[in-house]
Amino acid sequence: MALLPDHLRPSLRDRRRHQMDADRRKALILSYLPDWLLTIVLWIVFYLIDNAHGYFREFDLTDGSIQHTYAVHERVPVWALAIIGAIAPLVIMAAISLGLIGSFWDFHNAVLGLVLSLALSTTVTDTIKITVGRPRPDLIDRCQPMAGAANASPYGLATSAICTQTDFHTLRDGFRSFPSGHSSFAFAGLGFLALYLGGKLHISDRQGFTAKTWICVVPLLAAALVAVSRTMDYRHHSTDVIAGAILGYITAWVSYRQYYPAIYSQDCHKPYSPRLLEDMSSLVTEPNGHDAQFHVLPLHSTSSQDENASVHPAQK
């Protein structure tokens, strides 16, 4: 058996079968309009939440964990995060679904799942951020306490009222440490890509191809490096990035399972079928009536046998 499964090496006939005319493609996308609207709403909610005042937690001026230097230039700025966590997974999945497999339907499910994962992670992360109000490791430097500032006597703490920082955005962002947004975004996007690659490569086929594992681990390693960079910039505590990573991967897994079976399923390389029955029939069978090598699963369901199967038949 070669490293690249046969279902990723379709024949010319398979490619033509997967090509949809413009009307059918439009109908398929419209059938998923509620899903797309939900993701748009989530992004709007994220924007509104991100501009909220949020909670400013009290802090200790003598706490060494929040006395680090404020880094003006981040190792992974927001624009780089967008490329790493969103654009790169999109390009890779497009190359596989459209270029290698020739399936618009697989591409649609992959993009929708990715966008949903990112939207969920950013919205949940920001909601927690503004509610918790945890000080960042560089809070004191952001705050620029007034001369002679001290904790409330005799046992109290300091508040943002002692800060002389004139840039409110910089100060407000100093109270949004938990969880890490960079970490959750990276794992939401690259975690989804790892699951997508795992499904296409049948990583759980019990055939022991180490290369498959490494291919799926690379996106997670990239996400981990993004998360670690946040502690190097003193933007987050270690617990912030760990929580963000867990949150991001959970949203990736939840979103992936909305449109694909589990990666241990025998049919893990196949997306769930369209919501239009006529399109399902056209995608499941070839023109001659025989089952296609790369087809979709029955309408949003898998048999118990498929869900429980962890062995993919060996390629001869």
TrEMBL record:
CDD domains per record: PAP2_containing_1_like
Residues spanning the membrane: 27-49, 78-101, 185-203, 209-228
UniProt-listed SMART domains: acidPPc
Entry's Gene Ontology cellular component terms: membrane
Protein origin, superkingdom: Eukaryota
Localization per record: Membrane
Keywords of the record: Membrane, Transmembrane, Transmembrane helix
GO-annotated biological processes: phospholipid dephosphorylation; phospholipid metabolic process
Recorded GO MF terms: phosphatidate phosphatase activity
Record-linked InterPro entries: PAP-like (IPR043216), PAP2/HPO (IPR000326), PAP2/HPO_sf (IPR036938)
Domain Phosphatidic acid phosphatase type 2/haloperoxidase: 112-256
Membrane topology: Multi-pass membrane protein
Family from the record: Belongs to the PA-phosphatase related phosphoesterase family.
Protein name (database record): Phosphatidic acid phosphatase type 2/haloperoxidase domain-containing protein
Organism: Mixia osmundae (strain CBS 9802 / IAM 14324 / JCM 22182 / KY 12970)
